[in-house]
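Allow me, if you will, to draw on your knowledge of protein folds for a short while. I have a record of one protein: its chain in single-letter code and its fold written as discrete structure tokens. The full record is reproduced below for your convenience:
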Amino acid sequence: MNSRQSIQVHLINDAGNALPIANIEISIQFLMQGRRIYQFTLGLTDSSGGVTASYADLESKRRRESQFSVMDYNTRLEDTDSSVKILLESDQEICKRREYTNRIYGRLEAETEGERSNALVKPQVKFVELSETATVVQLQTERV
């Protein structure tokens, strides 16, 4: 990912229609040679079921994490693969990941502002090739 790029994720149903659910936490995994190198929260969806993050947003998160784990966050986003993994995790997966971060690093992973509603939808994962500028991802899910 480079400074000209951003990513937008929109929730859709199986018919391809917008799924307007707010407060769904969406994450992104950056890959290096096909393997996970970083995972950051893009944010919570708005009332239309969408969330957007710019390169600057994600690079800021990488830099902030590098203050705690210098060896783990020293690869620039520009040096990661051109494909990323978009995740809509279950509440249980999010809590488990945050507990692990706290146990290993002795600190809480930065949480998104607001209360997430991931229990309302089915978890999903999608691999995406980043475009030259704005990458738009339609992430199919359903209410549970």
